[in-house]
Design brief:
Number of strands: 38
Number of helices: 11
CATH architecture of the largest domain: Distorted Sandwich
CATH topology of the largest domain: Beta-galactosidase, Chain A, domain 5
Structural class: alpha+beta
Radius of gyration: 26 Å
Distance between the termini: 50 Å
CATH superfamily of the largest domain: alpha-galactosidase from lactobacil brevis
Number of domains: 3
CATH class of the largest domain: Mainly Beta
Largest sheet: 10 strands, antiparallel
Bound molecules: (2R,3S,4R,5S)-2-(hydroxymethyl)piperidine-3,4,5-triol
Strand content: 25-35%
Helix content: 10-25%
Length: about 675
């Protein structure tokens, strides 16, 4: 009897009969257990190898001093799914968990049962997709423009994406999606894979004339990185597989549901931030920062985050990383006067750290030059004047842990912004490749600090959005999606970051009129509408704002506080709008009685008359009233239509709308009558 793994409308159907590891008969729409599925001779093996006749990338690659480059697995008796090649002395175990949202997690383990070392070169989670999946989509990007989508046709051959920077990177694939022709946010069948790992990653889609197409993911291992001594095991990261018959929004709905069901998912209100980075950069002057805090508190900010520049010798980005003690010159009385002031204003206090890094110009590097993650005498090229601290070294690990622990004990810190500003290249510890061990050490460090300080929230930042993955999110509370606060670019970045993450896990800030990163000048109303759809904050020297700007910001924080319950619990909806100069997205409450949508004009339209605004995701049989979010400004002449309309009308006919000014948005609230 085939084995059904079913959840959230998705079924993975496995055939165990007569095979070493089960064969995959189906991954896609839910199948009732009673439905017979014809057995296929060449059904896809869970860990495809040459011995199965598979001619694509193998699910497991490795060797024993050059011997046994190919394994022949035989079934073993164990509670998990297991198989072994007794002659080669290698055993594998596979773990699959389908949750109630339809998110399938898979990981494999290899054990060396021989009496000499066995080297693992690759261990991949691979699943077949139907022939109808003829198109691919994944994400890429760069600093300041992360998670840009790209499409390809899914032809014969291999489409591969690799992260070789010891972090997913700004160009991370994030999700690799295969789908039926023309799939979009609201239509088409799609199959997706995500690697929940913060070190080297690989993703690929592969199709061969003799085999079904596959989607795969795993950790990218360097030469000799995993060399198992007799009895040792290597476990791959969790690889996530998600299917949706309702387009990309269905992928997001499943992932968001999965993430929200985790015991560690943040449940408290996501507080409005003021981050000091673009407000003062390295100019840490107590008087100036207190004034910034006063202004922030006056407009409804709830958490004040002191960014880079507070620790010993850190007057610019050339020195100080590693010296995690408060700079005595800039802060003669420590951070106490600022922390106390912020707390007295009723705000929480947050602090920036970059624990995995070191400047050579630091007390730490001078005292412990051997704690830099590099082979002796082979220091890497600096990036942003910095190097990586070798957290695999027990002394370095203990030093950073104890320094951060001391700060968290001394100060009333509710939040750490945990940065990671350079890629790991030529990362070597005691002569062997070290990205994997460094990644595990980072995880252990965060886990240990969290265990000691359970109330402290942590943000994953890596020069913006360079570390956005479900491995880091097992131990952090939000990501910084990008260093750009330019609302035109942010509309895109947030739209695609939302493919993986729900809005409450994505930091979204209002910056100054002229964005520091892009130089583009935009209206405050547009910046506010854009930053509303996430974990909102401000990153701007608001002490220099005019009264009307402060009033507008105060109204916006009030709107965010009023709407965040909905924004952070509802279903994300993105509209496949035919005009590429318009982006429409929203959040619909779980019971579909309320929604909030953003209609944004991000470029110049070719169409002379604006296209109708279709709003999907509502209940077809319910009538709704549409209004403009009262606290937010819109510069275009805009009025919500009178009357009430059914969800069916909203999605099939749409609302007639005037054209918005370029770089303007309107936020619509929809309520069941
Ligand atoms: C990169 C981050 O993305 C910025 O937000 C800021 O924290 C700087 N690092 C500080 O060095």
């Amino acid at each position: 009897m085939p084995h059904h793994l079913t959840g959230g409308g998705t079924t993975l159907l496995l055939d165990f009969d007569g095979h070493a590891l089960p064969r995959v008969l189906h991954w896609g729409v839910e199948l009732p257990e009673a439905d017979a599925v014809p057995r296929a001779e060449n059904a896809f093996p869970l860990l495809p190898l040459e011995a199965d006749g598979w001619l694509g990338r193998p699910g497991l690659a490795g060797d024993r001093a050059g011997q046994f480059p190919h394994l022949r697995l035989r079934r073993t008796e164990q509670t998990t799914i297991g198989a072994a090649d007794a002659e080669a002395g290698v055993a594998v175990a596979c773990e699959l968990i389908m949750d109630e949202h339809g998110v399938l997690r898979m990981r494999h383990q290899v054990r060396n049962d021989g009496d000499s070392p066995y080297t693992v070169a690759a261990l991949r989670a691979v699943l077949p997709v139907p022939d109808e999946a003829t198109e691919l989509l994944d994400l890429t990007g760069r600093w300041g423009n992360e998670r840009a989508p790209q499409r390809h046709s899914f032809g014969y051959g291999t489409h591969g994406r690799e992260g070789r920077q010891g972090r997913p990177g700004h160009d991370a694939a994030t999700l690799l999606v295969a789908g039926t022709p023309g799939f979009g946010f609201r239509h088409g069948q799609v199959w997706a894979v995500h690697v929940g790992w913060s070190g080297g990653c690989e993703y690929y889609a592969e199709r061969h004339p003799d085999f079904p197409g596959v989607l795969a993911g795993g950790e990218l291992l360097a030469s000799g990185e995993v060399r198992l001594a007799p009895g040792e095991t290597y476990t791959s990261p969790w690889v996530y597989f998600i299917h949706s018959a309702e387009g990309l929004d269905g992928i997001s709905a499943r992932l968001h549901g999965h993430l929200r069901a985790r015991p560690g998912h943040p449940t408290s209100s996501r507080l409005v931030h003021l981050n000091t980075w673009e407000a003062v950069y390295f100019d840490h002057d107590l008087h100036r920062l207190k004034k910034l805090a006063d202004t922030a508190a006056g407009i409804g900010v709830e958490r004040f985050v002191l960014d880079d520049g507070w620790f010993t010798g850190r007057r610019n980005d050339k020195a100080g990383l590693g010296d995690w003690q408060v700079d005595a010159e800039a802060w003669p009385d420590g951070l106490h006067p600022l922390v106390d002031h912020v707390r007295s204003l009723g705000m929480e206090f947050g602090l920036w750290v970059e624990p995995e890094m070191v400047n050579l110009d630091s007390e730490l590097a001078r005292a412990h030059p051997d704690w830099v993650l590099a082979a002796p005498g082979r220091l890497q090229r600096p990036v942003r004047n910095q190097h990586v601290l070798d957290l695999i070294h027990p002394g370095a690990y203990a030093y950073v842990r104890d320094s951060l622990d001391a700060l968290l004990k001394e100060y009333d810190i509710a939040y750490l912004k945990w940065d990671h500003n350079r890629p790991l290249v030529e990362a070597v510890h005691e002569g062997t490749a070290a990205v994997r061990r460094q990644t595990l050490a980072t995880y252990a460090l965060i886990d240990e600090l969290r265990a000691r300080h359970p109330g402290v929230e942590i943000e994953s930042c890596a020069s913006g959005g360079g570390r956005v993955d479900l491995g880091i999110l097992e131990r952090t509370d939000r990501v910084w999606a990008s260093d750009t606060n330019d609302p035109v670019d942010r509309q895109h970045i947030q739209r695609w970051t939302g493919l993986l993450l729900p809005p409450e896990l994505v930091g979204t800030h209002v910056g100054p009129a002229t964005t520091h990163v892009t130089g583009r000048t935009t209206r405050l109303s547009f910046r506010c509408a854009t930053a509303l759809f996430g974990h909102a904050g401000i990153e701007w020297d608001i002490t220099a704002c005019e009264e009307d700007e402060l009033a507008e910001l105060a109204a916006w924080t009030a709107a965010y506080r009023r709407l965040r319950g909905l924004l952070h619990s509802g279903t994300t909806v993105r509209v496949d709008h035919p005009d590429p100069s318009v982006l429409v997205h929203g959040v619909v409450s779980a019971n579909r009685d309320r929604a909030v949508f953003c209609y944004a004009q991000v470029g110049t339209s070719v169409a002379a008359t604006p296209l109708r605004l279709r709003l999907p995701g509502l209940d077809p049989g319910t009538r709704y009233h549409v209004s403009v979010c009262p606290e937010l400004h819109t510069h275009s002449a805009f009025q919500a239509p009178d009357g009430t309309f059914s969800g069916q009308v909203m999605s099939a006919v749409g609302l007639p709308l005037p054209r918005l000014l370029i770089a303007d948005a309107v936020v619509l609230e929809i309520e069941a009558t």
